[in-house]
Amino acid sequence: MTSIDLQGLTKVYGGIRAVDHLTCRIEPGRVTGFLGPNGAGKSTTMRLVLGFDRPTSGTATVGGRPYATLHEPLRTVGALLDAQAAHGSRTAHDHLRFLTVSNRLPARRIAEVLEETGLATVAHRRIRSFSLGMRQRLGIAAALLGDPPVLLLDEPTNGLDPEGIIWMRQLLCRLAREGRTVLVSSHLMNETATFADHLVVLGRGRLLADTSLQDFIEQHSHERVRVRTSEPARLRATLAAEGHPVVEGDDGRWVVEGATAQHIGALAARAGIPVLELADERASLEQAYLALTTDEAEFAAVPHTSPTTPQEA
Ligand SMILES: Nc1ncnc2c1ncn2[C@@H]1O[C@H](COP(=O)(O)OP(=O)(O)OP(=O)(O)O)[C@@H](O)[C@H]1O
Q: Ligand 1: which of 6, 9, 10, 13 to mutate, most ligand atoms within 8 Å of CB?
C-alpha cells in the first residue's frame, strides 16, 4: 500500500506562499478529492509531489520516498497534469510507445490502456486531431501505463462529455477499490461529490480540511427542512410561535432553516395540521465548500457598492 505523505510542505514564489506548511497523508484505497479556490496551491502541491519543483521547505514523498529517488517512477505514480502536453504530430499509439520504451514498461500495456480508455479505434490518429476529451483520455491512458499504485489527476473530467464523465467516475472508483491511492483535483464540487470518498481542501496554500466527504458536508452545513402543507396560514403561525420563520418557494414548498424534519413534523402533528411533504434537506458539497472557502478565495469577488449620490448644496 503506497500513500502520499506531505510533511510541512512549503513553496514560496517571490513573496507568495503557494503552499504553506501542508501536512497530510493521502491514503490508499479511496478517491481523495483535492479542492480549493483558484490559486489555493493544488497544482503546485501536485508538481512538488512529482518532483517538477523543489519545496522551499518540508517534504513530499510517495511510499516514503521522494519522487526523484523512485527507481521506475511510472510504475509507482501515474499523473495527469496537462492533457495538452502530448506531442500533436504523434499518434496516440506512438505517444504511448515512446513512454513504454523510455520507462522500460512492457509493450502489451499500450493496447491494454488504449482499450481501457476507449481510444483503441483512434490509436493511429494524430493527437492534434483529438478533441479535449480525447486528450484527457490519452492523458489517463499514459497515467495508467505503468499500472501504478498511486494516481495524481489534475481536473481529469475537463472536456469530457456526460458519457465520458460517467466513465471517469467508474474508473476512479475501480482504481480505488483495487487499493490504489487516487488524488483528483477538481473545480466541480457536485461532480467531485459523485466520486470522492475523502476530501483535502486547501485555502491560500494551507490545509483547511482533511476529512471524509460525508463529515465535510455535515460539518460545514446546517440543518434545514423542506415542508408543504394544505393549511399554510396555520402552519406559518405555529412555526412562528416556536421561533421558526419560513422561506416560501414559488412551488408552494417552504424551507425552514435550523430545524429537522422530525421536529417540524412533531409540531405540525401536535397542532393537527396536515403535512403533504416533509424532508430534511441535505446541503450539497458545493454549499459546504463555499461556506468553508469564501474567505480563502484568492480572487474572491469584491461586493459591489453603489457610488454615493452627491448631495446638492
Ligand atoms: N511558477 C510560479 N511562479 C510564481 N508563482 C506561482 C507559480 N506557480 C504558482 N504560482 C502562484 O502560486 C499560487 C498557487 O497556484 P496554484 O496554481 O498551485 O493554485 P491552484 O490551486 O492549482 O489554482 P487553480 O485552481 O487556479 O489551478 C498562486 O498564487 C499562483 O499565482
A: 13
